[in-house]
Amino acid sequence: MASSQMRFDGRVVLITGAGGGLGRQYALAFAERGASVVVNDLGSSPDGSGHSLLAADKVVNEIQAKGGKAVADYHSVEEGEKLVQTAVNAFGRIDILVNNAGILRDRSFSRISKEDWDSIYRVHLHGSFLVTRAAWPYMKKQNYGRIIMTSSGAGLYGNFGQANYSAAKMGLLGLSNTLAIEGQKYNITSNTIAPLAGSRLTQNVMPPDLVESLKPEYVAPLVLYLCHESCTDTGGIFEVAAGWISKLRWERTAGAILKKRNKSMTIEDVRDNWEKICNFDESTHPDSLQDHISLMMDILQQTNCSDTSVVMKEAESSPQNGINVELAKSFSAQSSVLTYDHSHVILYALAVGISTKEPDHLKFLFEGNEDFCALPTFCIIPAQKAVFEVLGDSIPGLEVDLVKVLHGEQYMEIFQPIPTSGELTSVAKIADILDKGFGAAVLINVETFNKKKEKIAFNQFNILLMGSGNFGGLRSSPAEKPIIRIPNREPDMSIQQTTSVDQAAMYRLCGDYNPLHIDPNFAALGGHPKPILHGLCSLGFAVRHVMKNYADNDPTLVNSIKVRFSKPFSPGHTLKTEMWKGNEGIHFQCQVVETGKTCLSGGFVRLASSASPLRSSITKQATSKNLLSDQVFEQLARKLQGQLDVKQKINAVFLWNITQNGEQVSQWTLDLTPEGGGIYPGQPHVKPAQCILSMEDKDIIDLKTGKLNPEMAFISGQLKITGKSMNDNTASNSSSFSPFELSLFQMLFLFLFSLSSNNHKKISNNPKKKESREFLFKLR
Ligand code: NAI
Q: Does the keyword S-adenosyl-L-methionine apply (predicted)?
């Protein structure tokens, strides 16, 4: 159909060695579809000797005779710039380059001369390099280019008598692979073909009927397709012949890890594992250097060795690569302060995929919600600010080239619920620098404190400085928070969630403004076809998935998190979190559904267990007596988390005696002082209670649901208040409280009013309670 015909009108194509064989077919096909063609050919014999204008002229005449546009160029590809100049002089630009020129100097390896080697290298590999290098600036400038390299089956698989040719042809694949990466930023693609066709190069090695049937016409459609503007595939290698086209890729066996902890590795280990090393049963298909590095990280983690035969001496005395571990560790960074309010906490929640679609998510999105709280992964926000400041600093003993920095792994531990507003101070320290060979892994520990200097969270960033390895440092460190391997079985559960195309654009507003996540040009510099999502954003999604499935969506149950960032993730793609229940928490890993690649690996969320004082004591008491008031105070405890303002306003300690039929059955402390421990069962831990409130268990529920007004409860005697006067330190009864103390109780009751969301409606209709509600909102 003419309407869907793929055209090249306005495009300028340079084809090297287009005077015959495959090149001629390409030239005719491009011209037929509207391209302006530069037909380059030196007019040499198959071994590269001689020179003639005829070859190129003949093809140009053929094209022009059919009404096409073409000019001849007679230079050798060894004069790359002159070929490109011909295109620019004739047509003003160059859009497509097909590196096709070729010769043969076949000799068995024992007979091959240096000249045989050099001449093949000069035409194939060096020639393709020179012409491409000349065309590159034009393509870059116009932000468009299509490049083809011509390899060969002899290069991919080897062929008797073609050592020189095979080496050059395989070199072209390496050249193309790297151009594909470097060209991404400029919309320049580079692909490689390994054709088979009847031509003068093959007529002496193939029977005549085969030469006849393997027509060059069968190769041209693939070359044209790869060079069309609609095709953005890059870095591919294709076999093409006889009307058949296929794509090739690398395949890697699962291999065998021979290095054992504290043991050296021997030649016999290799012999004994040879079958495993070569077994393709569980093979994978690596397609990038990042794949390779990520695997090496895994292996290093497993072989983590500390024996002196493998581990080299400390970097102290070997400051190569600008790294001196001890000096860097002694660096003390300025503390970093993050001041924020509820909007920052909500923005973070939205940025990691929280939505109002799910009703139990409102507590992360609405500052007026009674359970409003921050996600546990929010603790990364103050910590990353500190790390950016450290990396931006000049650290003695550590030279950081930000372009070569990769975020390798992350560990976070949460000690207290993250406040929903306020000021957090983070202190970053270089804990160690590990020598991973391909790079240096910088472990940066960050401790985050609230205003009272209580530790809220600990983060460990594992930052990879690519190319800074082999400095003579240790491979592992006791300071390193290790990856915990996922169980070797099918996941117990998985969740999928599609991210928004603007996910990274939103997440960056939380504080990571690296242009890699928003600017296509910057992303292309790093070899990414488009901006990638922050690894920490996908981590936020994954931890939410774990929390939702295994922790009742309760952030206070998340103790610590560890993960490795294995592969980039594109905004708009779907994240699949696979989860396994373990003894102490949940293992997880995440895949990109669209590509099947694992983007987060070795994930683990340690959940609060008996190790959590708040949680365990609540559970213990609630299960032992099964009191209604326990539920009320537990909910109140969660509500208080992060609400520093409330503590500052109330600034007093209350002890509640809970009774059943007049008999005391439990006690709860409400330590509402800024430095206090919050709400917990039992007697106060820090300061003595300033007043004691007694109430029947069943009445507390009425108080919570709004059935019972606290003032009425007090007047009717359902609520008893005794305590010490704060002024004279003497025992008082309820009738002798100072106005200040009475206002304190009022605040406490107002606070209690907000326990039930059902109350909001009722309160708004009652003028007195409306006032209370306004007061509460002021507190938030
Ligand atoms: P061909 O010999 O018909 O065409 C090659 C053209 O390159 C010739 O016209 C020659 O004059 C020109 N040339 C040689 N040296 C040059 C130089 N220094 N500068 C400019 N032009 C030069 O061969 P064929 O078969 O069309 O091969 C095209 C490409 O495909 C070659 O790179 C070849 O190695 C490759 N190839 C071909 C296969 C086949 O089955 N025909 C198999 C695998 C690869």
A: no
Atom of ligand 1 minimally distant from the CA of 154: 43
Domain that holds residue 353: 289-481
- Say how many C-beta atoms besides its own lie within 10 A of residue 702's C-beta: 16
Residue-averaged pLDDT of the chain? 83
Residue with tokens 């007026």: 368
Atom of ligand 1 nearest to the CA of 206: 40
Compute the distance from residue 103 Cα to the ligand 1 centre, in Å: 6
Which ligand 1 atom lies nearest to the CA of residue 200? 3
Residue of 165, 340, 348, 550 marked active site = 165
Q: What is the pLDDT of residues 702-711, one digit of tens each?
A: 777 777 777 6
What spacing in Å lies between the alpha carbon of 211 and ligand 1's midpoint?
A: 15
Q: Which atom of ligand 1 is nearest to the CA of 151?
A: 44
Query: Do 109 and 177 lie in a common domain?
Result: yes
pLDDT digit string (tens) for 674-714? 766 677 777 776 677 777 888 888 888 777 777 777 767 77
Residue nearest to atom 44 of ligand 1 (CA): 152
- Residue having the nearest C-alpha atom to atom 32 of ligand 1: 102
Confidence at 761, pLDDT banded by 50, 70, 90: very low
Residue 565 belongs to domain with CATH number: 3.10.129.10
**What's the total number of domains in the chain?**
4
Does residue 196 have its Cβ closer than 6 Å to ligand 1?
yes
- The question of whether 348 is a catalytic residue gets the answer no
Domain shared by 694 and 653, yes or no = yes
Of 65, 76, 81, 4, nearest in space to 31 by CA: 65
Asked if the structure places residue 1 within a domain, the reply is no
Radius of gyration of the chain (CA): 35
Same domain, 605 and 733: no
Q: Is residue 96 part of a domain?
A: yes
Cα-to-centroid distance, 25 and ligand 1 (Å): 12
| Last-in-domain residue among 609, 636, 668 | 609
Tell me if the pTM is above 0.90: no
Q: Hey, what long-range contacts does 702-707 have (CB within 8 A, 24 or more apart)?
A: 703/632, 703/752, 704/632, 704/752, 704/755, 704/756, 705/756, 705/758, 705/759, 706/753, 706/756, 706/758, 706/759, 706/762, 706/763
Contact 162 CB / ligand 1 (< 6 Å): no
Contact status, residue 547 vs residue 589, Cβ threshold 8 Å: no
